[in-house]
Amino acid sequence: MKVLLVLCSLFFCCGQAHAATATEKGYEIIVEADRRASGFGDYTMDMEMILRDRAKQESHRSIRSRVLEIASDGDKSLTIFDSPKDVRGTALLTFSHKLDDDDQWLYLPALKRVKRISSSNKSGPFMGSEFAYEDLGSREVEKYSYRYLADEDVDQIPCFVVELIPKNTENSGYNRIVSWLDQKAYRVVKEDYYDPKNRLLKTLKLHDYRLYLGFLWKAHHLQMVNHQNGKETDLLLSNFKFNNGLTDQDFNKNSLQRLQ
């Protein structure tokens, strides 16, 4: 019995000594969330973008999007505007990367040219919305440092609260991001974005999650509120279709001008 008690005591001490730090726990939570969001292959979807100014006046835009999962790097995505007429044909192509800055190209039909989005401009607003260009790529684990902050409920949902700090702060519009992930499915339900002066800039809330492929949860309503300018942008997602057989050829910057 004494030997057993000694062994138990040693196990307890070792367990305490190797308890995860806030950095380790934050990283482990994000890695698990990333694992659960991987393995979809490709998908297409439709989006309605609703822009609200400070006076709550609305404008609407119809968008199509396609995404290709890249196992060895970040995902590739293509976003195409269908309406209204003044933005019809505008397209954004994004190649996300695990370590390097994302590559992005914007086709502007009025100018009939493809514009490369420089790294220094990725914090700018995308098409007048409250989403920045850097918000539109896949969020790769390797690009951030992490710190677990607390357990906290959001709308009665038990969540992990994790702080994300961009490793490349020079080209990011954010000093840090605080993310709330539900403890059951590791889905992001809320995020606070802080500007380079560490002032609260924006809050994103994700609603109406639905399950696809038996394992993949996708939010159908994203709501971004800018606390500094009073503007809001909602994204309403629909018509998800998976396993479309998309390839690299469907994400070709040289064909952006020919998209319909």
Q: Specify the overall morphology.
A: globular
- Helix-strand category: mainly beta
Give the proportion of residues in helices: 10-25%
Q: Tally the helices: what do you get? A: 2
Radius of gyration, whole Å: 21 Å
Question: How much beta, percentage-wise?
Answer: 35-45%
Number of strands: 13
Give a quick precis of the structure.
The chain has 260 residues and is mainly β.
Structure in words:
The chain is mainly beta and 260 residues long. The radius of gyration is 21 Å and the shape is globular. 12% of the residues lie in helices and 44% in strands. It is built from two helices and 13 strands.
Which features does this protein show?
mainly beta, 260 residues, globular, 13-stranded antiparallel sheet, 13 strands, 2 helices
Q: How are the SSEs placed, and which strands pair?
A:
Elements: H1 2-17, H2 22-36, E1 42-52, E2 58-68, E3 76-83, E4 91-95, E5 103-108, E6 113-116, E7 144-154, E8 157-166, E9 176-182, E10 188-194, E11 200-212, E12 216-226, E13 232-242
Antiparallel strand pairs: 1-2, 1-13, 2-3, 3-4, 4-5, 5-6, 7-8, 8-9, 9-10, 10-11, 11-12, 12-13
